[in-house]
Amino acid sequence: MIRKDPKAERKHTMAVLLSRLPFTECLKLCHRVVDGLCGREPPRMLDYSATWKLEEWLELQNALSTLFLLAVRNNSSEEEVLAGVADVGSGHADAVLSVLRARREEIQLALLQRTNSISSAVLHDFNWQLKVALSSDKISSLQTPLLSLSLDVSESGTLQPVTMEMNRDELSTLIASLEAANKVLLQLK
């Protein structure tokens, strides 16, 4: 049994489903899909029930949403987006591309809002101290460097102090996590 590439199959399915709409309706649908991504009213199945069955409708809406989100998240060029909709007729591909061009910033803001909604905590200030633990109750000679990190975090208007103490390995892990988060932030800009 030969297995087909699921990505290629999804692109082909999207192409077949989109080709059932005239160009102007395809343009409207793409704008409505982006509206849904941005927190406004998404397209309704009822408006397209004569064109697609429920399963096809859900598959198309998912494929279009994924296409727009990934194109913005990955900062894809127009050529890369066109390659993603290569099986669609040129008019429909132009509709998808024109919606992406017109609403890229709006989609990017929606992605940022989704990310920001994960936590409402805000860092206001921080302070650190480097200490050396010379011994403990179990080991007489320890000499381990420790970092004491104090964070002033506000959540829902309430300022809360958070203090943690880390050894070298824990600090390295924290720094790697912060660098990765910064890299993601830079990519979103």
Show the helix and strand layout.
Elements: H1 6-18, H2 23-37, H3 54-73, H4 78-84, H5 90-116, E1 122-133, E2 144-155, E3 158-166, H6 168-188
Antiparallel strand pairs: 1-2, 2-3
What spatial order of strands do you see in the largest sheet? 1-2-3
Calculate Rg over CA atoms: 25 Å
Q: What is the number of helical segments per DSSP (H or I, 4+ residues)?
A: 6
Helix content: 40-55%
Principal-axes shape call: elongated
Task: Give the number of DSSP strands.
Answer: 3
Q: State the major sheet.
A: 3 strands, antiparallel
Structural class: alpha+beta
SSE order: HHHHHEEEH
Distance from first to last alpha carbon? 45 Å
Mean pLDDT: 85
Unreliable runs: none
Percentage of residues in strands:
15-25%
Task: Write a compact overview of the structure shown.
With 189 residues, this protein is α+β, with helices and mostly antiparallel strands.
Which labels suit this protein?
alpha+beta; single chain; 189 residues; 17% strand
Protein architecture, described:
This protein has 189 residues and is an alpha+beta fold. 54% of the residues lie in helices and 17% in strands. The protein is built from six helices and three strands, in the order αααααβββα. The protein has a three-stranded antiparallel β-sheet with strand order 1-2-3. A hairpin with a 2-residue loop joins strand 2 and strand 3 (158-166). Helix 2 crosses helix 3, helix 2 (23-37) runs parallel beside helix 5 and helix 3 (54-73) packs across helix 5. The protein is elongated and about 80 Å long.
